[in-house]
Specification:
Layout lengths: L2 E3 L5 E3 L3 E2 L5 H13 L4 E3 L7 H11 L7 E6 L6 H16 L6 E4 L6 H14 L5 E4 L3 H9 L7 E5 L7 H10 L2 E5 L13 H10 L3 H11 L3 E2 L6 H8 L8 H8 L14 H9 L5
Parallel strand pairs: 3-4, 4-5, 5-6, 6-7, 7-8, 8-9, 9-10
Antiparallel strand pairs: 1-2
Helix pairs in contact: 1-2, 2-3, 3-4, 5-6, 7-8
Family: Belongs to the aldo/keto reductase family.
InterPro entries: AKR, Aldo/ket_reductase_CS, NAD(P)_OxRdtase_dom_sf, NADP_OxRdtase_dom
GO molecular function: oxidoreductase activity
Amino acid sequence: MQHVTLNNGVEMPILGFGVYQIPPEQTEQAVSEALAVGYRLLDTAAAYQNEEAVGRAIRRSGIPRDDLFVTTKLWIQDAPARENTRRACEASLGRLGLEHLDLYLMHQPFGDVYAQWRGMEDLYREGRVRAIGVANFHPDRLVDLIVNNEVTPAVDQIETHPFFQRAADQHIMREYGVQLQSWGGFAEGRNGLFTHPLLSAIGAEHGKSVAQVVLRWLIQRDIVTIPKSVRAERIAANIDVLDFALTDDQMASIAGLDTGTSLFFDHHDPAVVAWLGKRRLDV
């Protein structure tokens, strides 16, 4: 497996398995299938409500803990946010059945972000987490966090797919030493992604599916990606993308698909901010 090196020296697989929108009753089997075919990066979140199932699959696998890279995420915390961040992390570790996390991400750029981040810095310094980062931070919010705190986020996990490519975001992240990680790499099939003529034609040239082309495109951009599926054959196919490479012309043609616009929701939209701010988790 290819790895990226984070800004604190920790190595992270560039391809992993995500469990967003997988129901808890299906998560254990899906993660078990993923681990069996070679995935070692697992990405979950308190908000997904399937951390316990991920933990069961890890224990069932028998894979040594040091061979795995486990990520979970902190939801928006009520005051006192710094102290609640610690409690939320300990709750996630308990559900996962782990002593430490490899990566802990602030899930949304809302609430008392500074207090939440300083709580995460505490956990990082104590060794409860090997790296800390954020998710859904646009460049302005990311840079603000960096310049006003001691620990620079190792990762920013943001919506990234052929129709919303985030090249400018990636440029800023590289400037500050932050690793871009994609969520929604397949755009959930929107804009006809899985039957797109260009992506289909590129796949035909390599004997690969559209999904495999998209994953390879992300990897060649040095973007960590975490495809999810509950079907064993697709889980296996999604990791089978390290044996071919897209040409420069193919990469350039895919670049032409960028619309520069989210297909899901805009974190600058006041209605989205209000909706996320009202969501609270019993964790």
